[in-house]
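Please decode residue identities from the backbone states below.
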């Protein structure tokens, strides 16, 4: 789907076509501009909103998603998240042929949005010495670093997102209400499941800004923590497949081998995490 408009400037008529890919770029750009902006305001010293906390961040991210959907949803569907694009494609709700273009547009939009956040807060980077806080403006940083547990957090959070989006999409709401419902869903996930990793639940939301953090001359920054970067990419991708598979199995009675494989893989990851945590506690007690 695309939006075609004509406008006149200085006596000349111009044709403008808003494509799906441009819409995904703009929607994700807006998401990161607002989402990254609120994190910067909360964690960078000297801002009026410094120290306003997690609640401020979660509510603002939810509203950012809502308005991004209002802005481009009628053009591209406002996935603004590779996990959404991949999850929908996995169950046949979106054509695979469009997946690469959507994902690249989302990552590019996230990168550019992060760049504008950096410019907007230029006077404040030098006022904060906390390198982790500066990184958290751009990408997610776990509260407790544990790759397996962090991966599970992202997996479950994204599974809830995709599962919920699919049943929201099958429900009739008053016209214009859907974006508000989705924004509320983002807040709900943030409050309930976001405290462990900062809830990326969106590979583009983490990868694009992390790349911006790596490339931009941010005053006093540390490393971009690439060793952790696979978690907010792999976790949301697996979670998107899990959420979409559960929806197909429970709501559509659609039983396919690939859905069973995803469920089995998720079970194996969860069991492995539980066993590792139990063993770690035993080792601590014995030590």
């Amino acid at each position: 789907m695309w939006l075609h408009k004509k406008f006149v400037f200085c006596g000349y008529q111009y044709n403008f076509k808003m494509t799906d890919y441009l819409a995904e770029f703009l929607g994700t750009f807006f998401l990161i501009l607002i989402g990254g902006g609120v994190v910067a305001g909360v964690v960078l010293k000297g801002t009026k909103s410094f120290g306003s906390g997690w609640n401020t961040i979660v509510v603002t991210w939810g509203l950012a998603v809502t308005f991004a959907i209002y802005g481009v949803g009628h053009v591209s569907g406002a996935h603004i998240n590779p996990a959404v694009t991949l999850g929908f494609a996995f169950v046949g709700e979106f054509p695979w042929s469009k997946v690469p273009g959507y994902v690249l547009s989302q990552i590019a939009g996230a990168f550019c949005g992060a760049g504008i956040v950096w410019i907007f807060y230029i006077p404040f980077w030098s006022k904060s010495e906390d390198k982790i806080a500066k990184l958290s403006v751009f990408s997610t940083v776990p509260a407790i670093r544990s790759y397996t547990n962090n991966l599970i957090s992202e997996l479950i959070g994204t599974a809830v997102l995709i599962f919920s989006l699919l049943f929201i999409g099958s429900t009739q709401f008053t016209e214009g209400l859907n974006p508000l419902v989705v924004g509320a869903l983002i807040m709900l996930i943030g409050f309930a499941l976001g405290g462990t990793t900062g809830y990326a639940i969106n590979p583009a939301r983490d990868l694009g800004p992390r790349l911006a953090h790596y490339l931009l001359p941010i005053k006093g920054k540390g490393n971009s923590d690439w060793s952790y970067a696979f978690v907010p990419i792999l976790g949301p991708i697996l979670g998107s497949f899990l959420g979409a598979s559960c929806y197909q199995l429970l709501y559509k009675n659609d039983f396919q081998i690939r859905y069973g494989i995803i469920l089995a893989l998720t079970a194996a990851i969860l069991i492995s995490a539980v066993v590792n945590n139990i063993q770690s506690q035993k080792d601590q007690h014995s030590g």
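Observation: The chain has eleven helices and two strands.
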